[in-house]
Design a protein that fits this description.
Length: 263
């Protein structure tokens, strides 16, 4: 049996996936990224290789690196952009999905997927951290909550307290002020989720979304954000059966499988 790997080195988390010859995912892992991208890649690959009883990346038939640190995966046969890999990962998970919003640690992308899993069109906001994983980490800190706790907080809100600041730093200050004024925590959280959903509007349009969309990246696990996107964008958010945070690594592994079998 031959195995194929994908390693997605993100700014916040590093993910790795191994597929067998039939495209079945046989192992995966997600670890917190280190400052050194090469170290992150090595740690993730060592962990995922161990799950299938392989000793080294050399035991893989083909390996592709992707993500923020894709050029720092020294044992990869080649690297491919995370935009292409997210599109392919979603395509093999659910071929019916044609539009993606990928919310990473430092940027937000809108991706239109073609019928073969390639990218038809994309847009990216990497100039501002608002609405990214780092933004949500800052918001959760302001509430003295974990990210999973914060992601569900807005679901109980009866009203929305608007967050007007567009910058992460100013938004955090605004939230701290509102919390200090004893405003309802769930209503502040709802305002945060609505603000991010509105920032996703342009990305969704660029991705060609008409009636539905899916979310990838760690923020795809944010239930409050999914609810806000459905409300603001009037789009159904499709929940993927495979962990949405793994889509980049899964797409990279699928590209590795295709290229490895074509050799």
């Amino acid at each position: 049996m031959k195995y194929y790997g994908g390693c997605d080195v993100g700014s916040t988390y590093t993910k790795a996936v191994i597929l067998d010859e039939d495209g079945k995912m046989v192992a995966d892992t997600t670890i917190k990224s280190k400052i050194n991208s090469e170290q992150s890649a090595k740690l993730a690959m060592d962990e995922v290789l161990g799950k299938v009883g392989l000793k080294s990346s050399k035991d893989l038939a083909y390996l592709i690196g992707t993500g923020y640190g894709r050029n720092k995966v020294p044992f990869a046969d080649e690297n491919i952009s995370e935009i292409s890999c997210h599109a392919m990962g979603v395509h093999v998970t659910d071929p019916s999905v044609k539009a993606i919003i990928d919310i990473g640690g430092q940027d937000v992308k809108g991706i239109a997927v073609d019928t073969d899993g390639t990218v038809k069109n994309f847009a990216m906001n990497d100039k501002c951290a608002a609405g990214t994983g780092r933004f949500y980490e800052a918001m959760a800190r302001s509430f003295e909550m974990t990210l999973p706790e914060f992601s569900k907080l807005s679901l109980t809100a009866k009203n929305v307290i608007p967050i007007t600041a567009q910058c992460t730093v100013f938004a955090e200050s605004e939230v701290i002020t509102l919390v200090g004024e004893n405003k309802p925590m769930d209503e502040i959280a709802a305002g945060i989720q609505m603000a991010v959903a509105k920032r996703c509007f342009v990305m969704a349009k660029k991705a060609g979304a008409t009636d539905s969309i899916t979310l990838t990246g760690g923020c795809a696990k944010n239930d409050g954000l999914k609810d806000a996107i459905e409300h603001v964008l009037k789009l159904k958010v499709i929940n993927l059966k495979t962990d949405p945070q793994l889509m980049g690594a899964l797409g990279a592994a699928e590209f590795a499988r295709q290229k490895g079998q074509a050799k």
